[in-house]
């Protein structure tokens, strides 16, 4: 699944992975602001940004093609708004919207794929993001694994009993079986979540996840934050000359 792949990528080792998450978050924010505020100079800025992002993905030892394809998950949503702009007589705005959304997705995916979720959330907390929002995000992410695990167990149980969609001739029967499986999945996931909550409470959970290794902002991280922030700004200045 998508979140499982990103979790596996975030556990790899590279200079980008070892960087402090706060430095990477600052670079991401500067890039997103520069991208969002670009208009006439978007084309040269987008080309330069795409090259920089591809270089960062390769430097992080991530599969380039797979990462670019996974970032394209946002295109169906942005394509709908781009089509509206196109039909309204403003195709340039529609293309800009699609390009900005895709480059933003690539940048965010690069951050998530090179930073384990506990470290990423701790970095966001250090930068002043409300702890309640981070706690909700942490639980949502963790319970994705719970739900996917229960779904895999149910699928294996059904296959071991010889249940297949091809064996149901009528569409009504397939729909009824899918609805029943979804209801059972919800009940089993809800029960599993309750067991996890009781286990966490019995171990003294106080509403705050602790990381095994504390964050340390080193000189290299400071240079990354400064240098990485200057790259999109320099691209904007260079793109403005070609606009």
Key phrases:
single chain, 243 residues, mainly alpha, 0% strand
Largest sheet: none
Average pLDDT over all residues: 81
Helix content: over 70%
Could you give the order of the helices and strands? HHHHHHHHHHH
Q: Which residue ranges are poorly predicted, with pLDDT under 50 across at least 5 consecutive positions?
A: none
Tell me how many strands there are. Answer: 0
C-alpha end-to-end distance: 41 Å
Q: Compute the number of helices.
A: 11
Number of domains: 2
Structural class designation: mainly alpha
- What proportion strand? under 5%
- What is the general shape? globular
Gyration radius, rounded: 22 Å
Please, could you describe this protein's structure?
The structure is a single chain. By secondary structure, this protein is mainly alpha-helical. The chain folds into 2 domains: 2-127 and 213-242, no CATH class; 131-202. The protein contains 11 helices and no strands. It has helices spanning 2-10, 15-18, 21-36, 42-59, 64-71, 75-87, 91-113, 117-126, 131-160, 171-202, 219-242. α5 (64-71) packs across α7 (91-113) and α6 runs antiparallel to α7. The longest helix has 32 residues, at 171-202. It starts with a helix and ends with a helix. The mean pLDDT is 81.
